[in-house]
Amino acid sequence: MNAARLWTLLGMLALAAWPSLARAVESFDFVYTGRVADEEGRPLTGSVTVTATFFHQEVGGEPIHTLDQSIEPVTLAEGGLFEAVIAIPAAIYGEIFPDVRQPVFLAVSVTAANGRVVKFARQRFSIVPYAAKVPVDAKLFRFDAEGRLSTRTQPQPNTYMMIDATGQLAFVEAPSTAIGAEAIGTEALKQDAVTSDKIADGSIGGADVASTAALTIASIATSTQNAVEIRPASPSATGEMRFVELSAGGTEYVGFKAPDLVNATMVWTLPSADGGVGQVLQTDGAGALSWASAAVGATGATGVTGAAGAIGATGAAGAIGPTGAIGATGLGGANGTNGINGATGVTGPTGPSGVSGTNGANGVTGATGVTGPTGPSGADGTNGTNGTNGANGITGAAGVTGPTGPTGLTGAIGVTGATGVTGSTGPSGADGTNGTNGTNGANGVTGATGVTGPTGPSGADGTNGANGVTGATGVTGPTGPS
Question: Using a CB cutoff of 8 Å and minimum separation of 24, what contacts does 200-205 make?
Fold first, then answer.
């Protein structure tokens, strides 16, 4: 983040975005004022080049157009101030300002002679289409004894100010507030914007509402005989009257609808009171409905006895009973007498020795044993003492500061004199031979934080410019109809 600051942005267009005027001039000029400094806040000097880029977004987005070659380089005044005249060619004016309602942001960057580039934050750029000149000719406006601008005649209710046939401003009676047939577009109307007392004939006819419009209202109260007429939904489906269940239960409904073909128009008249338990509605054939008990028909003949049912499947076998207990073991018989042992036979002679067999293959070599632990390291040798540092070179003398330039006749701040040449740096002393490193001493105790030095005095405030004359308050327009 650079330390440059934008002091002020002054933008003015001499003409408005009227197409006829845009063709009559070559460019639309305005002045951009700013200040540039280095990273430490010191103002830059010399000549700079200015680049202006226009955007429709405050952050990001693609640039609309960039102006650089058409902006003349400017010389920085004292304090790093500059004024650049930015000219928008008439040929691209409509590209930058396609609509006065669309925002435009200006991003300016300044390149100094030393190559430093300072970028200023985007600023909202607005234009003033037209400014009307109000004549003070003692016919409509005048200055009173205290110097305040006022109207000579008191405006009457329901009047507004306009230019009359003679070219003078005058108060005239407001036109009728009735809304014409084409006055309402597609914008939504506010609540209570249309009520029955605001409709000329007091009613909304069938031609006032599109046949495909969907109306959602709380209730309907009407005194017309054919108050509700449900027309076919399509050439192949009649309309329905639906009664939707409570929202907690879902969106299911019951209802009525006309058949696809009606032989004759018929309207049924409901009974004047509720019927009894189990009664039903019946018609007299002329459209009058009444409650009546449902007729009970004769008992029908007894039906033929059905064939016998099939035999059921055999039931599952019962469980096997438990096994009986094992009987007692009988007595064992007596052991027989042991027989006499036979005599041992004579040992035969030893046979001859066999041929020696071949030696077997060597066994697999065993794994290498674990390496023993490393012996202890020898003690570190003593560090040698540090060598003596070489002496610092002599600092060169500071250059003489140039004199401040004279103040201009117009009050502009004079150009700061050039900074004197800095003296050359003295030669550095030869480096001493580095001795062997001595033993590191223990860390010393951290010293207490020093007292913060006093804040330097603030610079003197510049002289405030004189306040401009406050313009007269415009005449309040008439209150619109409720």
Answer: none
Q: What is the pTM of this model?
A: 0.28
Residue 196 has pLDDT above 70, yes or no: no
Looking at the predicted structure, is the pLDDT value of residue 282 above 50? yes
For residue 309, what are the CA distances in angstroms to 305, 312, 313? 12, 9, 12
Dihedrals phi, psi of 197, to nearest 5 degrees: -75, -10
- Measured CA to CA, the distance from residue 141 to residue 410 in angstroms comes to 38
Compute the distance between CA of residue 88 and CA of residue 21 in angstroms, rounded to an integer: 14
Contact 386, 366 (CB under 8 A): no
Whole-number Å distance between alpha carbons of 42 and 35:
11
In this structure, how many other beta carbons lie within 10 angstroms of the beta carbon of residue 28?
22
Smallest Cα–Cα separation from 80: which of 53, 46, 43?
Answer: 43
Name residue 328's beta-bridge partners.
none
Structure confidence by residue, pLDDT tens digits, 371-402 = 677 767 667 767 666 666 666 666 666 566 66
Which residue from 145, 137, 143, 151 is spatially nearest to 476, judged by alpha carbons?
151
Q: Residues 125, 104: contact at Cβ < 8 Å? A: yes
Cα 293 from chain centroid?
A: 70
pLDDT in tens, 289-302: 999 998 777 777 77
Would you give the distance in Å from CA 396 to the centre of its chain? 59
The rounded distance, in Å, linking the Cα atoms of 199 and 228 is 22
How many angstroms separate the CA atoms of 338 and 11, rounded?
140
